[in-house]
Every structure is written in structure tokens, then in C-alpha cells.
Write the C-alpha cells for this entry.
Amino acid sequence: MTIKQNREPDLSTFLRPKSNKSSADYVVNTIKELLLTKKIMPGDKLPSEMELSKMLSVSRGSVREAMKILSAFGIIEIKRGDGTYVSSNIDGKVIFDPLLFSFILTQPGVDELKELRLILEKDVIRLVIKNATDEDIQELRKCQDAMEKLKNDTKENFNEELLRCEMEFHQIQGRITKNKLLEKIYNFVLEYFRPYIALGIQKHASGSLESKETHQNILEAIEKRDPVAAEKAVESSVEVWTNLLLK
């Protein structure tokens, strides 16, 4: 797909005010509809915060909150000193899936998030143990070793690297299931959880290294083909993640 850069579409025809003066959900949903109906495209520049606030009759705070949500999911890119753009790298991603947007707008509680991760991750680990080859396990080990090296890392991009390793570890497991439907669903949920995982890392970067230990336990259970140990390791991993969110 050829992306036209720096296009600034006139959205005044498509944006309508809303009576609720503080609805970030409305702003997010409006952007979603503009994307799905191709009124805005990857690479397009969005109106300024003030302009969106006036067009939609919502507070600037609501616009700002909506932009944070959209940015966290990679839908927009905020370029300081330049403006806000629809991401050029989302073509083909599940980000455009209306179901993902409905997840975003649902705003589930921590307990619901925990239950969803537990249900899905237990099913994934079961198939991983059943279908993993030696090469698959070696790939997981390589990812785990990369996370291990982060233990004493003091680089400025530590959080980003830790998040990358965290996501990769789970994405590899999705492939190892050898079930394309489950892998797609798992990747969808992982993408949804990305901002929550990032939040846990940002709030407690040192504490989030506990996830490295739980990953090690998961890996060892996979290597031993031990479903009982694997399930316990998954439960521990999700518990660590939940605690990081709540602290």
C-alpha cells in the first residue's frame, strides 16, 4: 500500500459534537469510525487538540486522554513540534479490528483482565507442550537469555527492551501451538494487553524482572513436557503481572 505522507484531510464535515463534554470514549470511537470508513488514512495528520475539542464539543482533557489510548495501541504517532499523525505502520494489523476497539472501550477491571489471561495462557501452554520441537524450545531459550541479560542493564531504553522481550516470549509460544486460529486470537489479546504490560514495567521496572523468573519456570516446564508444572508457572506469571498493575 502506498501511503501519502503529510496529508491533512478536512474532517470538519465528518466530525460532529457530542453533548457529553468529557467523553474520551467518544473521541476514540470517532477516530475508529473515520479509520474504518477510510475518511482518514495511515500517514494523515490529525487536527490539533484544540481543533478536535471544538469539533467534537468535548474537553481538551478528553481529547488528550483519547490520544494517549490511541497512541498506546500504536494507532497514532505524536510528533512533538509537528503534530499528531495516523500511524504509517498499522496497515494489516489487528489494530483495525473493530473487536479490539470494543475491548478498548469496555475498560475491564483488573480481575477481568486476569481471568482472560489465565484462560488463554493455559490453553496456549497446553498446546505448546504437546507440539513444541527442539528448535521451538531453543527459540524460547534464546528469548529468555535475552531477558536474563537485561537484569543488570541500565540503558535508557531498558523499559522498551523488557517489553519487547516480554511480548516476544509470548508470541513465540503462540507460533509453537501450531494452531493458526489460536495463534491469531492469542496475538490479538497480546496486542490488547501490550499497554497494560508496559504500564507494569514502567511503574516497577525492577520488580517487573520477576516476570523473567516466571518465564524461566514456564520454559523449564515446557522442556520437561510437564503440563502440571507449566500450568502452575502460568498462574504464577499472571499473578506477578497482576500485582505489578495494582502496586
